[in-house]
Amino acid sequence: MSHLRLAVFDVDGTLVDSQHNIVSAMTEAWSNLNLGIPRPEQVRRIIGLSLVDACAVLLPWANPTVHRAVADAYKEAFRAMRLLPDTMEPLFPGVKEALDRLEGEGWLLGIATGKSRRGVDSLLEAHDLQGRFVTIQTADDNPSKPNPAMLRRAAADCGLEPGEIVMIGDTAYDMAMASAARTAAVGVSWGYHSLDELQRAGAQVVLDTFDNLTEVLDAITGDKANTGDTE
């Protein structure tokens, strides 16, 4: 059995603080389609879902054609926003240091996100993180969270079993995805869902900082990394 282990990270709300840009782009999309103005808290609730699924949650009364139209308008707004010189999605404190420590201890790094691959690539370039992640699962090629497909494909990419993988994320969608894929689940408290929501969705631990991430992941995987057992 391989002794490799894979830490899979959500992006929005876990690695980067993107809520301002997401809320702004969704607000512009709604305005362009004469749908009114979404409440910021509504938009924050759906961060983590793939875009069309997120639009369906925000506009449950609308039909799929409207959901796709909003998604397309959102993409246009976000692309325009990305060209502005002052547009930035900052990393949360301690992200690069945590990635460095994990790699130093032999962990593989991955991403599972509702973003598009283009959005992920742009973000990784902006923060000089290219080449750090051995598997990148996006909304382009997978069903939306909490479907377990992203984690199953990440496992296949690396030749690993579920017990050798930990999902790190800020939403109940991340935790539920991990549960469905039978991987470990670690929540972070600085994102877009509450502590209670994370725990109810299956978080085994919820971190307040990335300072002790490596110790927490080592403790969670422990014997699992050697046996391939899952809970």
What is the residue-averaged pLDDT?
Answer: 92
Q: Do you know the CATH topology of the largest domain?
A: Rossmann fold
Summing up helix and strand content along with how strands pair, one would put the structural category as: alpha/beta
The CATH homologous superfamily of the largest domain corresponds to: HAD superfamily/HAD-like
Q: What's the tally of helices?
A: 11
Low-confidence stretches: 224-231
Name its key features.
about 230 residues, alpha/beta, Rossmann fold, 2 domains, six-stranded parallel β-sheet, 11 helices, 6 strands, about 10% strand, globular, disordered C terminus
Short summary:
The protein is 46% helix and 12% strand. It is an alpha/beta fold and 231 residues long.
Overview of the structural elements:
The protein has helices spanning 19-32, 40-46, 51-58, 64-82, 95-104, 117-126, 149-158, 172-181, 195-200, 213-221, 224-227; strands at residues 5-9, 107-112, 135-137, 165-169, 184-188, 205-207. It is α/β, with parallel strands linked by helices. It has two domains: 5-17 and 89-227, Rossmann fold; 19-82. A six-stranded parallel sheet has the order 3-2-1-4-5-6, with helices on both faces. Helix 6 links the parallel strand 2 (107-112) and strand 3. Helix 1 (19-32) crosses helix 4. The protein is globular. The model is unreliable at 224-231 (pLDDT under 50).
